[in-house]
Amino acid sequence: MDIEMWIRALKAARSGADVSQEGLAALIKWSPSTVAAIETGRRRPTMEFAVAADQALGTGGLLASLIKKDEERSGPTSFEPWPGYEQRANRLCNFEPCLVPGLLQTEEYARAVFSAGGLYNSDRVEELVSFRMSRQRLFHRDDAPECVFVIDESALQRRVGGPAVMDRQLGHLLESAELPQVRLHILPLEVGAHPSMGGGFALAQLPGDDRLLCLDNAARGQIADYPEWISWVQRKWERLLAESLGASASIEVINKLRVTS
């Protein structure tokens, strides 16, 4: 998407409606810092932001339509622009109830995930796999962020791609847990009901104490910076982490699930 053109459209709509940046932030209930970051190109606009701005400024859906057109002709968008935030983050916290987190997936595990159900053709599957693997480059940065993962034990018992693929994936988790910037915790089945049974999420701590939230759903990843949402999910995260196994105990669980050692 031509970000500069989109920003010009936003500014023109805001000017035409005689609404300041702070006024727009108040109308759509997003933080003023986010509106400013989007208008200066430091943050990519999301569909949620565009829809809210369209409604507040009476654009007739212009801003959202520009993003939609871009998504229809571009590559995978489920987590865009989340990878950009991952790369900028100082700290990432990720909970997954059903599968191995994308940042920790092997290529063949990711391929099995995207191939499930036959929803994508082979070219699209490979595009999605490549996109997912590219996100893992952040582990090799000199200033790699601290990454804390909580994975539901049931996700490790599901044989995604078959026993051999899953066994190699478990081995990859063990290798990833040895990285100095990675903390890996397993939420054991014995916990029973927990605060985030409705889905996974990721929290990113960005420079300047800015925080973002990415929520999983069936259609796409939803990115938000609503303070009340982040505060609520942070509370869930703290409880999940408290109920999870420590690092050593988590490694033992993974080792027990492996076919080979």
TrEMBL record:
Keywords from UniProt, A to Z, are:
DNA-binding
KW Disulfide bond (keyword) present = no
Tell me if Ubl conjugation is a UniProt keyword of this record.
no
Picking any one GO molecular function of the record gives: DNA binding
Q: Which part of the chain is the HTH cro/C1-type domain?
A: 10-63
Read off the InterPro entries from this record: Cro/C1-type_HTH, DUF5753, Lambda_DNA-bd_dom_sf
Q: What is this protein called?
A: DNA-binding transcriptional regulator, XRE-family HTH domain
Q: Which organism is it from?
A: Micromonospora chaiyaphumensis
Q: What is the lineage of its organism?
A: Bacteria, Bacillati, Actinomycetota, Actinomycetes, Micromonosporales
